[in-house]
Amino acid sequence: MQFESAHSGQDADNGNGIQLRNQRHPDHVGQQDALLGRKDLRGGNTAGKNPVQESRNAEDRGTVEVVLGETALGEVVHVAQDDRPVVVERSGRPKPPGHAGRQEGQTQDGQGPSTGTANGSSEAGFGREHRDCILAGRRPRVYALRVIRVLPPYRGAAMGLHITGGSIITPRGPEPADLGVSGGKVTAVAAPCGLPPNTAVETFDATGLWLLPGAIDAHTHFGMPLGSGISSLGWRESSEAALLGGTTTVIDFVNPQPGEPLPDAVARWRRSADGACLCDYGLHCTVSEALPERLAEIPALVGVGIPTFKGFLAYKGRLMLTPEQMKALMHDVRRAGGMLLVHAEDGEVNAAAQEVLVNTGRTTANWHPAAHPPESEISAVKTALALAAETDCPLTIVHMSLAESLAELDKARPAAAAAVYGEVCLHHLAADASLYGMGQDRALAAICSPPLRSAADAAGLLAGLADGRIDFLSTDHCEFPLETKRLAARGGFGAVPNGCGGVGERLTFAYTLGVVSGAMSPWRWMQVCCQKPAEIMGLTGRKGRLHPGHDADIVAFDPLQEFRWDALGASDGPGNLYRGRTARGRVVQVWKSGRLAVTEGRVVTGTAGSFLPRRLSHPQAI
Ligand SMILES: [Zn+2]
């Protein structure tokens, strides 16, 4: 069911997946009629009406989203419930070519990299004025014009929330507990039926479900531009996938341009995230120029809550620092009270390997891992550990992909004066290098750095995560549509953007691979996905635990559901490494800051997340 106005210019039969959902919820459709009045919209009498105001008025009964229109790429532009001008989501059904003129960068089938604006929208179908309004944060002149869905009322926004009948995860395993929520915070963790009766709160019956703190992914790249008009999937799409998978907080990377001051890069990156990211988010800042003026900016970033920096020993000629430069960076990061995250691959070794491959014509996707030999990672892990020991700089080795890297970490830890952490990412546990031999598409989907390794490495890393030698689980989420990788592959594997999705898959597949297999306890699984990232990355006291006073980011998780995984939300299906795999454990409900964010497998919030200033509190950090 849909509503049309004279302004919409949309084909009344041009449905999308969202409308189909409405058809499955006749109550909601009826509510639409009651709230907005079919006649008003169908008659085109919208000039004096403000759909945002309608949305506000309706908030206590249900939340209305109103479509502005659709772009030629099939993106739905609509007014959000919290009065932001527009947000964009993919309808999943691109319009045919020629709908509004084929755009540069689009492929023949209308798909392809967005050519659009900073928030991911395209000007196709709207025109420059409309696009400029969006960029300037102003509301476009034409509202309109079709209600796509009515969301259920907030839970706990004003009244408070009791979640009863579920189990929280403790070191002894799942134990029954009821949760009280008010003002966006957890207010009580009580024994079953232990919350004081209160008829003025919403209640949610979590019988049979586990209740977890909102998961934290400490390593993401949302909307990361790579040049040539290619960016990883944006903040909105990626954060929707995160929420659907139970991740309510991400820590993303700021990547300064050459010559760009770090504070300017941070400000630029926050502009791209604010209003678009539905998760709360923190930021790490990459330092790829170890110049005195850049290093001098580090304390200021620590002061505004960005205490973690990243240095690359890989990517020669672009991001790579020499060991001497890395040492200088570590020195200044330590002095400022920060921590350095290191991408540990040796850029010289990788560049030499790639040159040999290119010179011998071995440039198809299956050769990608040969340009990232294991000895490159092992050598760089040793270098990073040695430099951290020399400078007493707290260190995290990110995305370790080899069991031997873990062995090097084990050796270095006892003598380290400052904290040394190890991170592993989901794809290095859940997949292995055999994908590179399964045809171009599967090889392309698996192109990431470091690459997928052997099944034995994956097993060794999972064991390390389970027994505590690896500290936390991230995703390095950096998702590119498979079609983007296909186009880039014409220039050889070296031209293919590196990265995989996973932010929405992490909680469920860590459970499937870890807990269901018996490799780790539910407590350890919760720790590596929720608690440890908070503690290590400076969010202690606010995130990562279900304790009174913490943000009420809560996941209701069904540990028994077994199902075939499909790509989440706006994630790219064909490029998804997990699609079609059997998964166990489903996220069934998510609250962020006490508000319902996900239910019935769909995102039901348009409320943007907040920037999270962080402050490190490692016992060993100086
Ligand atoms: Zn990364």
Low-confidence stretches: 1-131, 138-158
What ligands can be seen in this structure? zinc ion
- Oligomeric status: single chain
The class by helix and strand makeup works out as: alpha/beta
Please report the first level of CATH classification, the CATH class of the largest domain. Answer: Alpha Beta
| CATH fold label of the largest domain | TIM Barrel
Helix and strand layout, with pairings?
Elements: H1 17-24, H2 26-36, H3 38-42, H4 51-57, E1 63-70, E2 75-79, E3 87-90, H5 128-136, E4 146-151, E5 161-164, E6 167-170, E7 173-176, E8 178-182, E9 185-190, E10 202-205, E11 210-213, E12 215-220, H6 235-244, E13 247-254, H7 262-273, E14 280-286, H8 292-295, H9 298-303, E15 308-312, H10 323-335, E16 339-343, H11 347-359, H12 374-391, E17 395-397, H13 403-412, E18 420-425, H14 426-430, H15 440-445, H16 455-467, E19 472-474, H17 482-488, H18 506-516, H19 522-536, E20 554-564, E21 582-592, E22 595-599, E23 602-603
Parallel strand pairs: 5-10, 6-11, 12-13, 13-14, 14-15, 15-16, 16-17, 17-18, 18-19
Antiparallel strand pairs: 1-2, 1-4, 2-3, 5-8, 6-7, 8-9, 11-20, 20-21, 21-22, 22-23
Helix pairs in contact: 10-12, 12-13
The chain binds zinc ion (ZN).
